[in-house]
Amino acid sequence: GMASLTARRRDELNKSILAYLKKSGYNDALGALQKELDIQPETKYEGTLERKWTAVTKMSAKIMRLETMVETLQEDLKNFGKGKKKDASLALPRAPAKFTCKGHKSAITCVAFHPVYSQVVTSSEDCSIMVWDYDEGQQEKKLKGHIDVVQHVTFNQDGKLLASCSADLSIKVWNVEKALCVKTMKGHDHTVSCVEFIASGDRLMSCSRDKSIKLWDVQSGYCLRTIQGHRDWVRQVKITPCSTLFASCSIDHTVRVWDFKKAEEIITFRDHKHVVDAIAFSHERADKVLLKHVHGTNGSKEAEAKTAGSNAKETSSPYTPQFIASASRDKTIKIFHIPSGAMVADINGHENW
Q: How far apart are CA 326 and CA 320, in angstroms?
């Protein structure tokens, strides 16, 4: 009750009530209360009661939200590491986020981490590219130059250069430090959906809605090669760290693996029933596990011999991945063994593409 208020607080409350009555035009009540308390209304207390009232409502809502969050987190802690089916939620990032960066005026299409600094770069449908310091949550730079949706951004190995590609049909190479576009490459006839540096950094590959893949010289900006084969929009292109293979996926439902030097197709995987939007090559540690799933004696024996061979000369040349994973709008993720063409995993779990 009232007893729990200190004299100062009670005085403040009384004055706030007087100010509220006066402002609302309740003159009879105001007169009566003024007489009883023997104090005058002061302008500095106007609006205090309303402010506090709304603050309290907001706070209780926030407290409820936080309590729910604490409950969820405690539940997660209890279940952590038990690996039961219902803990699937632990596989997903949970709120609250560690860092939040805001500034784009439209949907974000791609996010790339700087290989060295605590920087992250985002591209957006608002035609801009932004460089953020995610530790600070601060926007550091804005790279402007594209005149349509920026589809994809990627760093070279040391992070000095950033490549971007856009629905404006161009690819741009940026000096991130100076926020400067150093090269613009034109040649695609439709939206450019993905761009990747080769490990040495002197060349770039891109793929487009014009169904082609192109190889570019970074220094001169010249297109060195145009690679045809897909029958529809090429969504993504990826190059192995050893630069011996590259892969592409498309709206034509296929995943294709190519010989980088000859620019010839090695194998096409036609197992997906819908658009394939994303692909990724495996790496040496993953291959050791995945090779156990390659059926047929010769498959694994040969493959093991191959990896054993490549391990011996590991220091001299980068490893060539033997598997590729793909994600499709048919709601599956599939993993393929490149040398044999075998599908080693068909993962269902997503409820949508």
A: 18
